[in-house]
What does this fold into?
Amino acid sequence: MKLIDGKELAKNIRTNLKDEVEMLKSKGINPKLAVIMVGDDKASAVYVRNKSKACNELGIEYEEFLLKTETTMDELLSLIDKLNKDINIDGILLQSPIPKHLDINEAFRKIEPKKDVDGFNPVNVGKLSLNQDCFVSCTPYGIIKMLETYNVPIEGAHAVIIGRSNIVGKPLLQCLLNKNATVTICHSKTKNLEEVTKQADILIAAIGKPEFVTANMVKDGACVIDVGINRTEEGKLLGDVKFFEVSEKASCITPVPGGVGPMTIAMLMANVVKAAHYREN
Ligand code: NAD
It folds into this structure.
């Protein structure tokens, strides 16, 4: 079994990006990310802090906009509008979740597609499904990078994704399809889940249930990617895959932590750098 070391791979990607940021700066372009957070979700605060740290490390400018829980839709949209028009800002990220009285889809629609580094604007979602150049949402983008770096064959492989969320499952389906995999997507209403997952050459778990995927659900020699981040009451981090028993059957597997998580942030940085390149044109 080969461990897919997302932490190490993410570090290499960040090192290369740092050089690219230097090169952009030498041309007078200072890449900048703006992050909007509405309310005081604790997990979001941790994610936002990690994004700010990654920007600092790479020399990417970072500005945070913390809006109070009672923020109105008009206020949120006018902030996005202001950031869209700001020529010094390359990427805009709206941290989810946002309070329930706000319409996150409307907010994503408002983000200028060329600054939509999370890839959630419908223009980017549509372009991904048409296999056109676009911003790909960071978690699926990171997963594809891991598979490619570890030479996991995608073309012709049967990839099974458990989870159909807009941020992981659905964009990953498109990414794998664009790379000529045969893709099956499973979800909470899928019947005989185990029968489907056992067919996977590449099995991706994005469910949000600790240790949901057990060895009996996995084909011998499959590549297993664990997207899940679940915190136990004791504060331990668990993935969606029962690592120790599944790793005995898998040909390669991602750990939690140290797998998909660090790659997601590295790919966000890659998207900000990509956005900054638009200023060259
Ligand atoms: P979500 O809650 O939006 O979606 C979960 C999906 O799992 C749904 O499509 C649902 O149908 C499916 N599901 C639930 N129970 C099921 C069952 N019994 N059988 C089959 N399918 C079932 O979750 P999400 O936002 O996609 O996140 C999934 C997990 O990935 C979470 O643990 C989240 O924290 C983690 N995550 C990690 C990263 C990262 O960077 N590592 C990024 C995004 C999400």
Q: What stands out?
A: The longest strand covers residues 32-38.
